[in-house]
Every structure is written in C-alpha cells, then in structure tokens.
# Entry
Amino acid sequence: MKLERVELRRIDIPLRTPFRTSMGLELRRDILLLRAETTEGHGWGECVAMPEPGYSEEYLDGAAEIISRFLLPMVAAVEGLTPARAAQAMAAIPGHPMAKATVEMALTDAWLRARGTSYADHLGAVRSEVDCGVSVGIADSIDRLLAEVTGYVEQGYRRIKLKIEPGWDVEPVRAVREAFPDIALQADANAAYTLSDARHLAELDAFDLTMLEQPLSAADVRDHATLARMLRTPICLDESIISARSAVDAITLGACAIVNIKAGRVGGYLEARRIHDVCAAHSVPVWCGGMLETGLGQAANLALAALPGFTLPADIAPSERYFATDVTPAITMNAEGRIAVPTGAGLGLEPVDEVLERYTTAVATLSDLSF
Ligand code: NPQ
Ligand code: MG
# Structure
C-alpha cells in the first residue's frame, strides 16, 4: 500500500446537550477528519483532540499541523506501508498521540477495506455487541442532574458516570445513589484534585462506586498509588496512561485497579490493544473511554471494546446522545443498553456526503507527500 493523497477536513457539529466537565463547557464538537487515499483505496480517521489544550496538551490546529507537516510525509515514505509500519515510523516523533492515532486509524480503515476485513476482526474482537455507559456532565443543580440521569436510566444505559470537580462531588454522587440504589455508578474527576483532597474523596466510599476515574493530575502516578491505599473505591486511570509501558508502571505501583483505554490518548488502536493485553496479563479490567466521537470514531471504539478484556461498560454512545445528525448513518443502542459492533470491511461505515458538507468549516488537500 502507498499513501497518495490526504484530505484534512474540519467539521463543527452542535452538541444536543451542553457537556460541562472540570475542563470547561462544550457547546459544540469541532472535529478533524482525515481521509487517506492509498493505492488500495481510501480510509477515514478521526482526531479526538479538542480545539484547545485541556484534557491533554494536544489541540486541533496543532494536530493538523503535525499531521500535514511531519507525520504524513514520514508515512508516505514507508516502503510496503501497513498500519503497523506507519505506527512504527511515526514513533520517531515523541508525543502527539491523538494526531498519530488519526493517521493510523485512516490507514487501517483503507487497509482493511481492501482486504474485506472488519476493524473488529483485525483487533481480535470476541463480542458482537458492547455494553454502553453514559458520561454525565456537571449539571446546574442536583434536581436537573437527577432528571438527566433518570432519562439515561430509562434509555437503558448500563452504567452512569458522573463528572465531578471540587464543589460538585459528594452531594451529586449521594443524590444519584439514593435515587438509584442498584445502578452501576462511577465518577470521573479529569484530574481536578490533589492528594491533599484524599480525606474528602474518601467520602465517596459510602456510595459503592465501581471506580473513581483520574482524580489527580496525569503525572501524579505515585500520588494515585498513595490515594488508592486511602480509599476503598477502586482507582481507574485515564489521562495518566499514555502507553502499554505506562500502564504496566501504574499497575505495578498500585496506582490503579482499572484502566480506561482511549486509542487517541495512546497513539492508536494498535497501542490500545497492547494496553488491553498487558492489563489482561495483570488481571486488570479495562473499558473503552470516549471523546464525543462521530460515528467513525465510535465504530473503531466498538471494535476495540469487543476485545475480551473489556469487561466494564464503555463510554460509547449512540449518535443521538451527542448529535441531532451524526456524520455517518446513526449508531443506535438497543433497550438493553448495547450497541452492535460493525461487521463490514474496515470501520464498516462511511460519512454521508451531504451531512459532511453541511458541517464542514475547512478542507485542505495534501497531494505532494513525497518530500
Ligand atoms: C473522559 N470523555 O473520559 C472524557 C473527557 C472529555 C465522554 O467523559 C469535547 C471533546 C469535550 C472531548 C469533554 C468523556 C470533552 C471531551 C470531556 C472529552 O475524561
Ligand atoms: Mg476520563
């Protein structure tokens, strides 16, 4: 396979409901899509970076720059290009995992489409559907939170994840637990606390949470290990886990009992699978995180979440959770809170042209990738 031409496309989709986290309020989803044309056909990649740094250091304009200026020329020069060789070549540049994952995802889609193989079979999936959870943003009041969560429970989501931050933690978690004594419930802090909040966070132990996700900063792995010894609630790491190596380090230190896997955060689906493998070897359960992806990203995440070690519900949502109209045919969830893993070649779905055009804010075509 050889890379011939790439289209970078920015799309801007209004969110159906505002999504507030400790990093800020999101009203729309501004997304970078990459369409790779190769000698064997085309494929799609989706960049999960946000317009501004916050969740991590990456941001959309920076991702577009490193992709077009450095990653694509490197990948275009690879002899006998495969997704794995592309990932290997891109590893020469440190960092920029979301940008690398975008390129790897598009090349993988093209590669698999040409071979009639699904993303799920490529990654080693063993399930035909995935259990879905929902990530609930910080609300304006406890009453509004309860109304929102009630709707999600009625829709069949198999677990509820509450975004928390200092000032919005114990009370909302208590209220949801009292209203729904039996639901699977977890909280995600997106690194909003420090170790000095340990006694306060220990109050969450009263609510039988499946996990507390990323309470401390990404670099504070040792502090997470200290915190883990002070809490009964299992710690899950998201932002801290940037590779299979860092997953092994965190597990060995006792910093987490559960790992959230996002391909964008770790540089691609191949590294995501390696994290799954090392976690399985350490008997650490994993689950598939989400970044408010379109149907393209959700399709790849569904394939990943169908691997055997993904034993907890995913942050994979039906299209309607975030968007009035997705760029792909809508991904739907059944009344039991499950979404089918796509079975078609590659991602198994494609953007709908007129929807894509409607949301597009900028397009760049890169055809001279040879220098
Ligand atoms: C998390 N995702 O697990 C992330 C963080 C996150 C579904 O909770 C725009 C784009 C806003 C991506 C807000 C979920 C976002 C975003 C939060 C990702 O930590
Ligand atoms: Mg998270």
Notes: The domain at 3-116+352-366 is CATH 3.30.390.10 (Enolase-like; domain 1). The chain is about 35% helix and 20% strand. The longest strand covers residues 3-21. The chain has a mean pLDDT of 97.
